[in-house]
Amino acid sequence: MTFCLLLLSAVALTAAVPAPRALTRAAWPERDPVVGLWVWQCLVATVLLCCLTALVLGAAAVFQTVRDHVFAPAPPAVTAAYDLSAAPVWAAALTLLLACGAAWTTAMLTRELVEARRRRGQAHAHLRERAPDLPAGLPEARGPLLVLEDEYPDAWWMPGHPPQLIVTTGALHRLTDHQLDAVLTHERGHARARHNWLLHLSTALATGFPQVPLFSHFCDQTHRLVELAADDTASRRCGHLTTALALIELNQHRGVLSCASTHRLLGERVDRLLEPQPRLGPRHRLLTTTVAALVPLLPLLITFAPGLTALS
């Protein structure tokens, strides 16, 4: 059991510190943001699974009740293989630390979801004030597209069932038909991929554990890569140039070409659309996604290895 805990800790530290730093320096996620998002999710899943399995093993070693429940269906040889009775003192401290981490993670996720629901409710109320002439009110509106009277060009999507696209009259006046199609396709790409759930997860982890490099990089890269992925969805339908021009027209009043840090991502997105790079080849995509999917299996293999060895 001691060896399993040490190995799980080593895998978690590797996935939480050097791996994300190396991934942020790589250039290929910008070329294929969907694969990049998948790799980031697999790294996060690896760390969370390491912590969860280590928590279960540690709790089973420290508490007899937990041990009886976890290993109740297992043969005596499997229980003996984990050598839970010889748990070192540091295992109890690690178990307590992991239990606190699990409770804090749950609290951060709950807080993020509650805050997101509150913000969504405020946004609905604000839209009802700005669009008071809707026949049945915004919550009962069945159409997926809401046109809002506003001189500033803007478009966004609001999560819900179904998701609703919102576009201002300023955007309708400024954008051509093809550019408007690109903007709406971009927003539909967010809705279909359910990027809001990924953003909530990354924000909650980064807020709860700001000192963990994986979670802070995961939050930053998720906010960046979801926009690049939606840009790719729009460019495949409407073309790179049309999507870039729509992005410029829609954000020109915000300073899309400014060097300010708050607008830097917009400039990078425009440059990326105007100078498209070749995407990853099919073999590279398959290899990357397969390897990334196998990484979260490491904690499970480490955890079940003693039991499988005993059964064999």
State the gist of this model.
This protein is mostly helical and 312 residues long. The protein has helices spanning 2-16, 18-25, 28-31, 33-62, 64-70, 76-82, 89-130, 169-174, 177-193, 195-208, 213-238, 240-251, 264-274, 282-294, 297-311; strands at 145-148, 155-158, 164-168.
Binned strand content: under 5%
Q: If you average the pLDDT, what whole number results?
A: 85
Helix fraction, binned, reads over 70%
Spatial separation of the terminal alpha carbons: 18 Å
Radius of gyration, whole Å: 24 Å
Low-confidence runs of at least 5 consecutive residues: 134-142
Largest sheet: 3 strands, mixed
Provide a count of the helices: 15
Please state the overall shape, judged from the principal axes of the Cα atoms: elongated
Structural class: mainly alpha
Order of helices and strands: HHHHHHHEEEHHHHHHHH
Number of strands: 3
Spatial strand arrangement across the major sheet: 1-3-2
Question: How would you describe this structure to a colleague?
Answer:
This protein is mainly α and 312 residues long. The protein contains 15 helices and three strands. The chain has helices at residues 2-16, 18-25, 28-31, 33-62, 64-70, 76-82, 89-130, 169-174, 177-193, 195-208, 213-238, 240-251, 264-274, 282-294, 297-311, and strands at residues 145-148, 155-158, 164-168. It has a three-stranded mixed beta sheet with strand order 1-3-2, with helices on both faces. Strand 2 and strand 3 (164-168) form a beta hairpin. Helix 1 (2-16) packs antiparallel against helix 15 (297-311) and helix 12 runs antiparallel to helix 13. The longest helix is centred in the middle third of the chain and has 42 residues, at 89-130. The radius of gyration is 24 Å and the shape is elongated. The chain starts with a helix and ends with a helix. The model is unreliable at 134-142 (pLDDT under 50).
